[in-house]
């Protein structure tokens, strides 16, 4: 049986500031992933360090911490088949000029320092990152598909 994956996505502060929240969410929704958690927040220093712990000590690390805290982000959890790799594919490579044409980063960003979107790189990272930004009770997996709603409403009519 194929299991659905969850992944952590964030519209970074430059994406929020540039008015690209809707555009970015739309890319994931129209792919068919389900948004199961969504919030706008100011990243704290503690969250930033936890999120990017793997990059500690790298030359770009201090600037990265500053970047992710430079304004609010829109954090979300999306769910779907193979969602971790699929979301990364939609986002494109870290450097927007290496990213495949049509991806979010290729379409809306110019440099890797301001690449407007984050997505977890593995199921393990996703689980860890979701825990940094969301409580389990902030994730909503219930919800009926349209055909179920239609049948229900027709049944209610009798
Ligand atoms: N980054 C940067 N300079 C670099 C590499 C990365 O500013 O040389 C930033 C960039 O915003 C990137 C983030 O650090 O998205 C995390 O880097 P990673 O290699 O994990 O890239 P990602 O997983 O976001 O594609
Ligand atoms: Mg990464």
Task: For the structure shown, list the relevant keywords.
Alpha-Beta Plaits, binds magnesium ion, alpha+beta, 18% strand, globular, 4 strands, 4-stranded antiparallel sheet, binds uridine-5'-diphosphate, 158 residues
Describe the structure.
- The mean pLDDT is 96.
- The chain has one domain: Alpha-Beta Plaits (2-Layer Sandwich), CATH 3.30.70.
- By secondary structure, the chain is of the alpha+beta class.
- It has a 4-stranded antiparallel sheet.
- It contains 8 helices and 4 strands; from the N terminus they run βααβααβααβαα.
- The structure holds uridine-5'-diphosphate and magnesium ion.
- The site of uridine-5'-diphosphate has 8 residues, from loops.
Layout of helices and strands:
Layout: E1 4-11, H1 13-17, H2 21-31, E2 34-41, H3 45-51, H4 61-68, E3 73-81, H5 83-91, H6 104-108, E4 117-119, H7 123-133, H8 146-157
Antiparallel strand pairs: 1-3, 1-4, 2-3
Regions with little confidence, pLDDT below 50 for 5+ residues: none
Topology, number of strands:
4
Please give the alpha-carbon distance between the first and last residues: 36 Å
Classified in CATH, the superfamily is Nucleoside diphosphate kinase-like domain
Count of individual helical segments: 8
The name of the CATH architecture is 2-Layer Sandwich
Strand order of the largest sheet: 2-3-1-4
Judged by helices, strands and strand pairing, the structural class is alpha+beta
Which band does the percent of strand residues land in? Answer: 15-25%
- CATH fold descriptor: Alpha-Beta Plaits
State mean pLDDT (0 to 100 scale): 96
> What form results from the Cα inertia axes?
globular
Helix content estimate? 40-55%
- Count of distinct structural domains: 1
Spatial extent as radius of gyration: 17 Å
SSE string: EHHEHHEHHEHH
Bound molecules: uridine-5'-diphosphate, magnesium ion
Task: Report on the biggest sheet.
Answer: 4 strands, antiparallel
